[in-house]
Structures are given as structure tokens and as C-alpha cells.
Amino acid sequence: MSTTFDRLSMILQQSFKVPAEKITTDATLASLDIDSLGTVELLWQVEEAFRITIPAPPKDLLTLSDVAQHIDQLIDQLAVRPAVPLTKAPAAATPADPRHAP
Amino acid sequence: MRRVAVSGIGVVSPLGNSAEDAFAAARAGRSGIRVLALPEFPLAGRLSTPLAATAQLDEAALFSSMQLRMLDRFSLFALFAAKQAVAAAHRALADVDLERAGVFVGSGMGGITSQDEGYKTFYGDASDRVKPFTILLGMHNAAAAWIGMEHSFRGPNMTYSTACSSSAVAIGEAWLRVASGQLELAIAGGAEAPLSPGSLMAWCALHTVAQLDPVEPSASCRPFSKNRSGMVLGEGAAMLVLEPWDRAVARGAPILGEILGYGLSSDGSHITRPSVEGQAAALRSALRSAAIDAGAVDAINAHGTGTQANDSTETAAIRAVFGVRAEQIPISATKAVHGHLLGAAGALECVLSLMAMRHTVALPTMHLQTPDPECDLDYVANAAREGVAARTMLSNSFAFGGSNAVLVLGAGN
């Protein structure tokens, strides 16, 4: 938890220019001027930093503690089943695809 | 209709990042066109003509990291040019009714750099890590929106995309609204950043870009010259502050010029091939709009792209409207040095024309070494002409799609 929070804190400081003293576990995203658009970007950066895929935008991320717990949950899920690959190979054309029929 | 003053100007261009620098370079005939090379342009080797007029902007010094993530290059250009224009306009925004203040921007390709990056990630890298703001960076109206937000304007926020006439249209439409009394102030101009790899490749594929001059690459764009071989892409932005003449005078603002009118026409014939009738119609429409005779026009900034088709067609259109007097009108094609800024071209050329009138100079058409019998007017070849006291100029912008626009500009004195 502390490691996850520390890394989250670094993202907030570096990319969102949030002063370190405002970054506490119970600070809300709104109090840090991170609106819905900012949350989208934050989660994208979290995906990059933690090498995880956030399947759908969670609706209940109110505080930084919520965000950190959500990240940990996703990391735990990855430990028990293979990660969704960050990079996928392009799908090969299927010979049976009717669009390719002569 | 009210008189409309230009009280502020801002420029980001291959000729420098102020109206003064760009004008000085155009006057001296210094070209901003250069060879695109590694490492700055990693795919330059795959372009048939790795050539462009590039703008140099210290983005890290001018914008916050948040802005740099949220704004495409064309929006950064637009925002910085608008900032200069507002700063020059001597408190034009103080006490303005924000509901009667508008933004009018032209751009042909919008946030193409961001779109291109997104496609590269998805198709090229076969990655799903497309940046979340790709849509917001790439949309054509982003530049206008950011300018409007910067100043909390609540009037119309408009973006025009009529290819190479986009920003002439934007300035013209802004002029109409200020002149009619609908608006008290407008920031109007154009922005273009078309030098992403995919965009450059697409332009090369169209075979309208100039061949690289092996001896002097910066002289590859040669408007009205017999040996012209095409256009050279450029990037940048130019923005004007437009307001009622009386308001600017009352405030003691420096008046940098005047918009007198604006004409539109369409070729109605071909998606790329220009038409004499269409261009002549735009010129006549502009004269009617300003309520002036052809005899009142002292100089012209030509569309002058350096393509075979445009330059001979434009010459014929000017002859069709001005008759034998066409030969007495100094005609400048400044794209020879700043390249073709597409949707921002009309605005930059409007700025250079206003500056030329203030400095009583006709700007040169550079690299015009070989006369073309089909281009037989006075193009102010290769050297600026000093002491040209023009009071009224036309600035021509003719576009793919046949969307033609001509601005009528006054010296503002």
C-alpha cells in the first residue's frame, strides 16, 4: 500500500504539479483539482507506471486512498491470472473471412 | 457598417515568432525553408521531398506541462500568437463585454500531429496505449477553444476549415461581425502544424510539393517562375485583434491596419484545379464588399503557391479583374520564403501585407529567376521595393475545393 501510494504521489507531483503536502490518503481527487477529465489522464498514467490495464473507468474513486486500493486490487488480480498484454500483435486476416472470398 | 481596426498582431512562423521578425525576414528575402533531416524528422528519408518551412518555438519555456499534454502543436502556435496579439492591443480586453467578444480561427488540418501519433501507436506500434486526450488535441476547434478559455470570452467561438483559405475566411467572418456591430472584439487568424510524418507523406503522395533544389534547398519554392515545381509546406500561426475603429482610437491603441472588406467565391468545377473565373469572382466580390473600384487597389499579396496551375491561373484572374492596370500593381508571393502554411497562410500573409503598407514597401517574390510567359505581371522579383505608398491591398487565398477568399486591407491611417 505504501509503495503504491508513493508511486501515485510521484505521478501527482510530476504530471499534475500537485504540491507534496496536499497529497494525503484522505485527500479527494476533487480537492486536488483533478476533475473527470483529469481522472482519465491520471488512470492512463497509472496504467503506464504500474503496467496494468484498468478495464473500465471506476466510478467510486473519491480519495487517493481509493485510487491506491484500486491499483493494488488490479495488481493482485494480475498475480493470479496472466496480465492482459499491453501490446497486442495485429490480428491476422482470416482466410475464411467472407470479405476475402474471390 | 463600422470601420474595423487591427489593434494587435501575433505571429509564430518559419520567419520568426513576432510580426516584426517575420516582416523583416520577408522584406530581406530570407527563406525559412529547409531540408528535414534526422534526428528531428525520423522518417524524412521516406519522403520524396524532405523539405518544409519550420517554426521554432520554445514550448517548454512558454507553456506548462499540463498545457503541453493537452494542446496539439497547432493549438500551441495559435495560443502564443493570440497572446502576442492581445498584448500588443493595448488593453483591448479591458472593459470589453465578454458576450460580444469572439474567436475566429482557420485551420486546414487541425490537430493532425496528435491524430498521426494516435494512429502510429494503434496501427504502427500495434499498441492499445493511445493517449487519452488524442481527440481533444486533434479536434479542429481546439485552438479556438483554448484562446477563448484563456480570456473567458463568451461570444462566438468559430473554426473554419476551407483548406488553404481557412484563415482568410476566419478573418473575414470576424470582420463582418465586428463591422456589423454584433461583436465588440474578435481574435481572428489561423494556425497550422502539418509537418507530422503521416501528413508530410500524404502531401508528397499528392505530387503538389516542390522538387528539392539541390544547390539551394531554401530556394525550392519559386512562385511565378517558369521553373517552379510546386509548393513547400510551412507551419505556424498568425492572429489579429479586430475591434471597432472608434473604440481603438478612443483607447489610444496603436492601429496597425484596417480590414476593409472580404470576398468569397467558389470555383464550382474541380477539387484541385483552380479556375480563372472562380478566382476572379472572389476578387470582384472583395471589391464590392469594400465598396471600392479596382482602381483603388495599390498592391496584392498573391496566393502564389509555386504550383504550375495556381500561378498562371491567378495571373489570368488578376488580369481579368484589373485589365491593363494589372501590370502596374506590385504583386508579392511571400510563400517563397515562409512556405505554404495552408489554413494559416491567409492570416500570415494578411499580417505581412499590413506591415508592408505601414513600412511603405512591396515585399519581394523570391527565387523568381526565370520569367514565365504565362505569368507576366509585376511580381516584385527577388528584392523588396521601397517607397511603395500603398493604402489598399488585397490578400488572395485560393484553396483546394475551390473555396476562394480575398481580404481587402487598409493601411490604417
List its traits.
heterodimer, A: 102 residues, mainly alpha, Non-ribosomal Peptide Synthetase Peptidyl Carrier Protein, Chain A, 46% helix, globular, disordered C terminus, B: 413 residues, alpha/beta, Peroxisomal Thiolase, Chain A, domain 1, 2 domains, ten-stranded mixed sheet, two-stranded antiparallel sheet, 18% strand
CATH architecture of the largest domain in chain B: 3-Layer(aba) Sandwich
Strand order of the largest sheet of chain B: 5-4-6-7-1-8-14-13-9-10
What is the CATH fold-level name of the largest domain in chain B? Peroxisomal Thiolase, Chain A, domain 1
Radius of gyration of chain B: 20 Å
Structural class call of chain A reads mainly alpha
Order of secondary-structure elements of chain A: HHH
Largest interface, by Cβ-Cβ below 8 angstroms: which chains and how many residues each?
A-B, 13 and 13 residues
* β-strand number of chain B: 14
Uncertain runs of chain B are none
Q: What is the residue-mean pLDDT of chain A, rounded to a whole number?
A: 80
In short:
Chain A is mostly helical. Helices cover 46% and strands 0% of the residues of chain A.
Provide an overview of this structure.
The complex is a heterodimer of chains A (102) and B (413). With 102 residues, chain A is mostly helical. Chain A has one domain (2-80): ACP-like (Non-ribosomal Peptide Synthetase Peptidyl Carrier Protein, Chain A). In chain A, 46% of the residues lie in helices and 0% in strands. Chain A is built from 3 helices and no strands. Chain A has helices at residues 2-16, 36-50, 64-80. The longest helix of chain A has 17 residues, at 64-80. Mean pLDDT of chain A is 80; it is low at 83-102. With 413 residues, chain B is α/β, with parallel strands linked by helices. Chain B folds into 2 domains: 4-257, 3-Layer(aba) Sandwich (Peroxisomal Thiolase, Chain A, domain 1); 259-410, 3-Layer(aba) Sandwich (Peroxisomal Thiolase, Chain A, domain 1). Chain B has helices at 19-28, 59-62, 65-70, 73-88, 112-124, 134-138, 142-151, 166-179, 197-205, 245-251, 276-290, 308-322, 335-338, 345-358; strands at residues 4-12, 33-35, 51-53, 101-106, 157-160, 185-192, 236-244, 257-266, 299-301, 331-332, 361-362, 385-386, 392-397, 403-410. A 10-stranded mixed β-sheet of chain B has the order 5-4-6-7-1-8-14-13-9-10, sandwiched between helices. Chain B has a two-stranded antiparallel sheet with strand order 2-3. In chain B, helix 4 (73-88) runs parallel beside helix 7 (142-151).
